[in-house]
Amino acid sequence: MTLDPVLSHLLSARPAPLAAGDDPAGWYQSFHQEVLAPWQARTNGGASASGRDHFAHGLLGGFVADRPAWALVAGHQAAVRRLAWERGGLDLVPDGGIVAFCASEEGGAHPRAVHSSLRKAPDGGFRLEGQKRWATLAPSAAALLVIASLGRDGDRNRLRALCVPSDRSGIGIAPMDLGDRKPSNPEVRHAVVDLSSVPVAAGEVMDGDGYTDAIKPFRTIEDLYIGAATTAYNLALARRSGWPEAAVEDLLLLLVAAGALAFGPLDEPAAHLGVAALSRATARVRADHEEHWALVDEAAAAAWRRAAGGGGVAARAQELRRQGAWTRLAASST
């Protein structure tokens, strides 16, 4: 499939939000059943067809979201599925179920900080041990995509990605205490995930290196897909609220740019620079549209302003990737 049918849908379909309570898992399941599965059936775009379908997945979810948090969920889950598809593990992802990406530990998600271990077991599988922190959506997840270590090869930590059901024996999930932090999307909860001798089948371990093929590309995929899903949510609100046609066209252009980036390799310097430029363009468009929010109902406008206040950590990480991209390009030209 191409992106064109998705964009046409966002511009012509009735922008009616899907209201399904305050639980991320319940909303996502309703979205899958009522919107995504019928869309895939109409367009012959099965969930495993291509990376294009996962990007469309995020746009459709943002378009029918009744709040910014659900747009974030849709984009995040589309990003997780894109990663699983690329690593040959999409069949491990439950249809209509939330998957939490569990990479970060107490010291972060750099290879040096990943101490969770994946040890060979006598039955031919593995046993998973460790603890993950800041696992987005883990309290609502049906499955966990976990990064763990097979051990060290000299100074190199050999990491792998794996996917297991969240109710597997040995898994404990507890919402994180955020202290004085006020989340911009309180419905999207984070968790500490304890892993104690969790049985893992050999077929639940994905292809590739857990850092270069999972953690690194996921950062950019997540930024791009969540941003696009949020723009699709903005577009639906704009259409419902009677914004000028030019404002809707501005949002459409952002989605076209996001789509162009999404269908290429996302760990190349050009992709990082493109995502950074798209972020700046999105900020400019939102500033230009500030006056139009007077047309939006007060509750929706307040939720948008609250959600727009987050993203500080992600923005700093994106800036480091932008700087790193220019460094890589300079090194390759010498």
Task: Tell me what you see in this structure.
- With 334 residues, the chain is an alpha+beta fold.
- It contains nine helices and seven strands; from the N terminus they run H-H-H-H-E-E-E-E-E-E-E-H-H-H-H-H.
- The chain has helices at 4-12, 24-43, 51-64, 68-86, 211-241, 245-262, 269-288, 298-308, 312-332; strands at residues 99-102, 117-120, 126-136, 143-153, 156-165, 171-175, 190-200.
- The chain has a four-stranded antiparallel β-sheet with strand order 2-3-7-6, with no helix packed on it. Strands 1-4-5 form a three-stranded mixed β-sheet, with helices on one face.
- A hairpin with a 5-residue loop joins strand 2 (117-120) and strand 3 (126-136).
- The N and C termini lie far apart (40 Å).
In short:
The chain has 334 residues and is of the alpha+beta class. It has helices spanning 4-12, 24-43, 51-64, 68-86, 211-241, 245-262, 269-288, 298-308, 312-332; strands at 99-102, 117-120, 126-136, 143-153, 156-165, 171-175, 190-200. The model has no long low-confidence stretch (mean pLDDT 92).
